[in-house]
C-alpha cells in the first residue's frame, strides 16, 4: 500500500519513512499536490524490474527475427550506388 505525503512532511520525518520502507511500506511524495517521487523498498523495485525484463525477453523470443518474405538482403540492396 502506498501512502501519499507532502515533501515537507517527508523531509521532517525522513528517518521514520526509511524505517517504514524497510518494513515494506511505500510512499508517494508530493510537491504542491503533484506527485514528484516514490520511495519504495529496494527489493520490491528489483523484483519488479526482474519481472518486466523476463516478460520482455519472453516476448522477444516469441517474435520472429524477420517477417516472412523480407531479407536477407544482398550487398547491392544494402548500399546505394550512384
Automatic annotation (TrEMBL):
Belongs to the phD/YefM antitoxin family. InterPro entries: Antitoxin_Phd/YefM, phD-YefM_TA_antitoxins, YefM-like_sf. Gene3D superfamilies: YefM-like domain. Antitoxin component of a type II toxin-antitoxin (TA) system. It comes from Siccirubricoccus soli. It holds the Pfam family PhdYeFM_antitox. It comes from the Bacteria. This is Antitoxin. Transmembrane segments: none annotated.
Amino acid at each position: 500500500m502506498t501512502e501519499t505525503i507532502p515533501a515537507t512532511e517527508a523531509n521532517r520525518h525522513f528517518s521514520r519513512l526509511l524505517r517504514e520502507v524497510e518494513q515494506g511500506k511505500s510512499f508517494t511524495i508530493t510537491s504542491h499536490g503533484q506527485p514528484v517521487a516514490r520511495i519504495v523498498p529496494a527489493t520490491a523495485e528489483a523484483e519488479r524490474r526482474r519481472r518486466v525484463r523476463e516478460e520482455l525477453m519472453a516476448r522477444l523470443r516469441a517474435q520472429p527475427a524477420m517477417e516472412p518474405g523480407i531479407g536477407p538482403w544482398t550487398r547491392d540492396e544494402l548500399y546505394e550506388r550512384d
